[in-house]
Amino acid sequence: MKVKIFTDGAARGNPDGPGGYGAVIQYVDSKGTLHEKELSGGYRKTTNNRMELMAAIAALEALNRPCDVELFSDSSYLVRAFTDKWIDGWIAKGWKRGKEPVKNVDLWQRLLEAKKPHQVRFIWVKGHAGHPENERCDRLATRAADGENLAEDAVLLEPV
Fold first, then answer.
1. What is the pTM of this model?
2. Quick check: is 74 catalytic?
3. Known catalytic residue at 8
4. Which of 36, 128, 135, 153 is an active site residue?
């Protein structure tokens, strides 16, 4: 099954800093009907990079069967870790970047585990200057972050 995931970290505007994360999962069932599932991480005080990773993790963990996934994110940190093979180097060097430890190792390891059963293509939707996929990511994921559907309660891909 083909699935598109749109994520955004710190998607909820918060005057005190990063606020929440949102993810939207879209798929078309065998009858051609588009389904959308919104996931929200609610308010959590942490860094934007951690929010981006948590949004991707929540979405991948919500898939209850192996899928062909396109994951859209405006986080170059998230996307380049996989597309530029940073993560392979970090693992080979014992989660080090040069002599410095890699940040967010707990989340990187959880993300690797969450993506295992799936074919995942990470797509960077660069910047906020009118890029159509970035606008879509922001709109969908921000709506999800402001919603009530917490990721911990998510179940996706019910039999259709």
1. 0.82
2. yes
3. yes
4. 128
